[in-house]
Amino acid sequence: MAKPFLLGVLGGMGPLATLDFQHKLLDATPAQSDQHHLPSVVWNVPQIADRQKALAGIGPSPLPQLLEGIKKLNQAGASHIAIPCNTAHHWYSQLSAASDAPILHIVDATLDALLTVAKKPERVGIIATKGTLDAGWYQQRLAAQGIESITPTEDELAEWFVPGCYAVKRGKLTEGGEMLSLQALALMARGAQQLVLACTEVPVALRAVDAPFLPLTYDPAQALAERCSRLWQDYRLTQQA
To answer: What residue ranges are annotated as transmembrane (predicted)?
Structure first.
């Protein structure tokens, strides 16, 4: 007998991005009543060590706390787990090995969504942490589809992305949105036709300033939410059969 569907969300990175992901889950799920919505259990514990600092070698690893969150979600009965934080996927292999429930990969969900568009872009800009950029997940998968990646320079990361990201963590959404908009415009000036917002706090900030280029962006958290919703809808169909 199939395990009852229950989505586990390993959140807290940051807490606002987790709430935004939960809202995306609601929006992505067609429902006529409360009972039609996707069931989830959320580990929104923001005391997880800073991922950017850990990968830069200036802070402790978040892995023990991430593993604790995975343990709690499995104990709660999660049938699937989503992590609405791109950088945390640096530890995806270790987390998957420790989890009974399969962990959905945010990059796979994003690329699957991108490839469904009618006209595939030739050049895509990536707004992400240095850790995510250095890992190359998005660049490799885009290259496999013949798409060129355009990434921030070191100076841009230091001047716009990092302070913009941490402004969001302080609740200063307009400040963060203004800096992250500059990062986005710089990538587009270098030829990016579309942008992947590969840090889950970026879409929140850009919406706060009503960035005019938002229609040209792909939101990995949205793609992940849609993947989760499809799994839930498929499960409901099997239960009705």
So the answer is: none
